[in-house]
Amino acid sequence: MLIVEDSDLVVQKLTKLLEPLENIRIVGRASDGYTAVKLIKEMHPDYVILDISLKYGHGIKVLEEISHFEHKPYVIVLSNLNYQYYRDKCRKLGAMHFFDKAMEFEKVYDVLNERTKQRSKETTKSKADAAGS
Questions:
Q1: Is the pLDDT of residue 10 over 60?
Q2: Cα dihedral angle (116, 92, 90, 59), rounded to 10 degrees?
Q3: pTM, entire model
Q4: What percent of the chain has pLDDT over 90?
Q5: 98-108 burial, b if ≥16 CB within 10 A, otherwise e?
Q6: How far apart are the first and last CA of the chain?
Q7: For residues 32 and 36, what is the distance between their CA atoms, to the nearest angstrom?
Q8: Residue 6 host element (H or E)
Q9: CA-CA distance, 95 to 70, in Å (whole number)?
Q10: What is the Cα–Cα distance from 115 to 107, expressed in whole angstroms?
Q11: Residue 117 clears pLDDT 60, i.e. is over it
Q12: Contact yes or no for 48/97 (Cβ under 8 A)
């Protein structure tokens, strides 16, 4: 997982929130759009938590850039810019979820917890199917 967020406090809160998830490992952090795109291209993270409002750059630009990548991460936007325009734009560019940082922060955990459980079940089923063949 890559966290794209320019607030150290938010990164600390996310790290603490996601720590109990066994199948999620934070592999990097970017605090600007350029670094975010570069790291996503190099690291191919499965998940990206993305803020829209960054000190340098904009989360929308990050989504535009990575929408052309062959390996697209599962993107969760976590932002204070909770306007329908941004929600719609992020969804159109491939973000799977858009959460309000002030009101829906914990939903990031819920989504990732459910997603990792689902992927774990799929992996177990695939292994069982392969063993039965």
A1: yes
A2: 100
A3: 0.88
A4: 80
A5: bbebeeeeeeb
A6: 33
A7: 6
A8: none
A9: 15
A10: 12
A11: yes
A12: no
Three-state DSSP class for 38?
helix
Token representation of residue 109: 């955990």
28, two tokens: 């990097």
Q: What is the DSSP letter of 81?
A: -
Where would I find the H helices in the chain? Answer: 8-18, 33-43, 59-66, 84-92, 107-132
**How far apart, in Å, are the Cα atoms of 50 and each of 19, 94, 131?**
18, 12, 39
Q: What is the pLDDT of residues 14-32, one digit of tens each?
A: 999 999 998 899 999 999 9
Q: How many Å separate Cα 109 from the centre of its chain? A: 11
Pairing of strands 2-4, 28-30: parallel
